[in-house]
Amino acid sequence: MNSYKAGKLKVLGITSLERSPAAPELPTVAEQGFPGFSGEPWSGFFAPKGTPKPIIDKMATDMIAAMHMPDVVKKMSELGTPLIGSRPEVFRAFVAKEIEKWAEAIRVAGVSAD
Known about the structure:
single chain, mainly alpha, 44% helix
């Protein structure tokens, strides 16, 4: 958002379903004729298969606590990036839906890796 706010970048639309609190004047792609379009960036933490559940739970608890630290919340808000911070099972379901969504987009577009 810094490049946009400085006038160095022209933003055509926000790819989330809702306008960004960091730049509410920018329309969403959905508002511009592509209803339901959502292509939000996200990130998460993954652990190797077989990592013991108590370790996963401890990591999740610590990461959620870190994401609620005032300086982290402030910085991410300035960047227009919402923080969710969910439990592993919620994140696992989210990733499965993302895989399904983008697999369909790849199929429809006829994209291949070769």
